Amino acid sequence: MKWKMKTLRELGAIICGDVGFFKYRSSYFITEFFNDCGLDYTHDGTTRAAWVADRLGDVLALPQTNPAILPDAFVRIIRSVLDKSEAHDGDKDRSKALAALNVVLKREGWEVFYDETETAQLRHIATNVVAQMDSPHRPMTPLELERRRLLETYLSECSEDDLIEEVLLPLFRQLGYHRITSAGHRDKALEYGKDVWMKFTLPTLHVIYFGIQAKKGRLDAAGMGKNGSNNIAEIYNQVSMMLGHEVFDPELNRRVLVDHAFIVSGGEITKQARNWLGNKLDAAKRSQIMFMERNDILDLFIVANLPLPKGALPEVDRFSLHDDVPF
């Protein structure tokens, strides 16, 4: 990832504290700053802002799993610059520092905001993707737990189309998938066993194609499905169609096969259902199947800091839990 030199120079001046509302750093403290961010850089005594700009260029050039996502080290740098413990007089909430930094970052299509834990987060403006996502298995804050509860209620009540459009599509975009195409349910004949197809670019620039078969309710292997559940046998034919049918990639102007299939459930996917499908599919197809159930969706969606679907928020509190309104 390469940014304009003008942007890097202005960020260098901010880190050095040559811009109002930011902590001034001498040569010694610049070295300390980068070391605290996990980078083994030592200032060599040259012009501070120019040296910092060169180091920022080095950080942005670090290899990434997804070329569209900023390096973790760069995110740590921005978070350290906006640490609220370094607030200046006249800018106790750091809103002025935030505004000054956003003037620079927006030139590259990014913006920074404080989340509910007062931690600075970087978001790509065009895609609304947050630069760095924490582990979905970490402990959640009380506000995150409340957002998770609201989303869980929404998943119990929403339609299958809402599950796809309002939850899965934003989530997979955040996770770095692109060219996400929803088949929808208006023309069933064109789905060929998949509700969504998308692709993911590896660091080697090879592309892997994915299909998603999404069901709103629970997936089980019972002979007769209970209310709100789906029999896994119904999924078998759809998965077989998905893996055997080509999709057209307009970027390459050719048809390609789906490499992997996600079976996504808005409820639980029972162990019996997983085992039944695994026994029905041959070894090659079995290795292409991945499962995602309600708890996976909830944890990933919340730690990704995505705005809740409108239908998940109480009418009287429509914006208070919405991270889409950062300031």
UniProtKB/TrEMBL annotation:
Superkingdom classification of source: Bacteria
What lineage does UniProt assign to this protein's organism?
Bacteria, Pseudomonadati, Thermodesulfobacteriota, Desulfovibrionia, Desulfovibrionales
User: What is the name of the protein in this document?
Assistant: Restriction endonuclease
